[in-house]
Amino acid sequence: MGDLADGLSKLPSSLPTAIVLANISYTLASDNTPGSLFFGAKLIQPPNVTQPDHKVPSPFSWDLVDVRLRLVGTDVKEAELSTHFTLTDSLPGGRVAQLALNFSYESDSNSSTWELDGSVENLRLSMLGQFFDPNAKDGLIKILERSKSRSWQ
Predict the structure, then answer these.
(1) Which of 26, 68, 82, 83 could be disulfide-bonded to 102 (CB atoms 3.0-4.6 Å)?
(2) How far is it, in rounded angstroms, from Cα 67 to Cα 102?
(3) Which residues contact 131 (CB under 8 A, 6 or more apart)?
(4) pTM for this structure?
């Protein structure tokens, strides 16, 4: 476990690296059934993060990651990663956009399925201006300030 903790401690402090919940279970193999392993974890942004030590603009916050993995024998049967972000507008009013992504994978003996779902709520495209090239930023923000979406899925 020390290697995992060392690896997580080297990541930027504002990433969700604090494990707040974890579940590991193993089912023993029997007759014709291979053993299975389940792992699930919930990670949040560490408490008391005040000064991000990376170059991502600070109104962007990566709040939560949920991870699940199920192995049967040596085969990955299910994997899922869900995450949540917030983006705070730098303009007066401080609107907050909510962004969520879910990646999932399922496999059985006949096929496998990959799926990506996402949602965005209360995003004004002008909120993305902080990520633009400084030389093009002003013109793009003027165009984007007129565009907004309450919800995309």
Answers:
(1) 82
(2) 10
(3) 57
(4) 0.68
